[in-house]
Design brief:
With about 375 residues, this protein is mainly beta. The chain has one domain: Porin, CATH 2.40.160. Helix 1 runs antiparallel to helix 2. About 30% of the residues are buried.
Amino acid sequence: MKRIIRIPDCSFITQVKYFFTIYQARPWQSILFICYLYLNSHIADAQLNNRFFEQRFLLDSTKKLTFRFSSLGFVKNNEFFGPIADGYTLFGYQLNPQLAYQPASNVLLQAGVFFQKDFGQERITRIAPTFTVKFRHKNWNYLFGTLEGSVSHRLIEPLYNFERLLQQRIENGLQINHQTDRTFFDFWISYPQNTRPGYTRQEQFWGGISAEFSAIRNPGFQFTIPIQFTAFHAGGQNINSPLPVRTALNAAASLSLLWQNTTSGFFRSARLDAYAVGYSENAEKSYSGGAFYPNLTVRFRPATVLFSYWNGRNYRAEFGGDLYQNYTRRYNSTYQEANRQLLIMRFLKAIPITEGLWVTVRFEPHYDFGNKKFEHSEGVYISFQR
């Protein structure tokens, strides 16, 4: 019989200290403990800031028919030589012209075409139609069709690989989201792959919840609790696939502190996130794992520096970043590590050019303790939305 952690009846600060004492042995139960802290505290940007790449379908009651356009140019080079992740370069651009029609102030119909061109290939990599029905009730948005997906879910990289933005950006399904000054909530179900009786491929569902709640929000200080959960399912009835039916769950939660300099100066802000991350899968047999993932983000006048430490045991996420996996993502390899430790530094700079146009530059070196390797990636991204 599994032992159940008893939560001591003590002050909030004492409970926070207690979390760090129980995490190493029981990461999944630690995540539940963080949820308890949220409820016990009456709590009504995580990790890597990807807000410049988010795509929102805006409601504008003053215009009924509009043309909208978004694009992303990218080059990302991964100099990876270890046994977990392949090294390669992603170089190309994405275009998404759309027509938006508002029959009412709270209803939006938007349709367009998504193009992706990867340099080095003669043909266009992908052409896909996009269509979204969105309506709003108070501060809640309901979407069907092409979702406000990818990095717009604001998941941490161990749960969602940033490179999916550059390779599999479009998500289709159902979505409900809500955002105010104090809260962010996103629920979605997407359908990456379908199947039919007799097909050899499995159908795939991927969905989850991403939420962040502000407990304290002052001009110079904020205390928030991000909670994230994703589920991936692969299966289907009457199909000819040799692959087992799989359901994989991933979760993450953090206690996050943000200090902001209320006066202008070289040192702008600092944010500390301490994530507990968990993984559980049910296929031919059960798997589980977890990780500890603290992040310190320091924003200076010229650029932002992010320090991250990853300590994962038997961890896997279907759509998570390659570097964080304990099971290899390298081509034609079955390698795995029971424990994976990384020290990551990120140097980030976002440069506004004009309204809607941003250039983002990133340099991301890391050290792999287990394999004693220093690796790095770098990228330049040009995003435009109008």
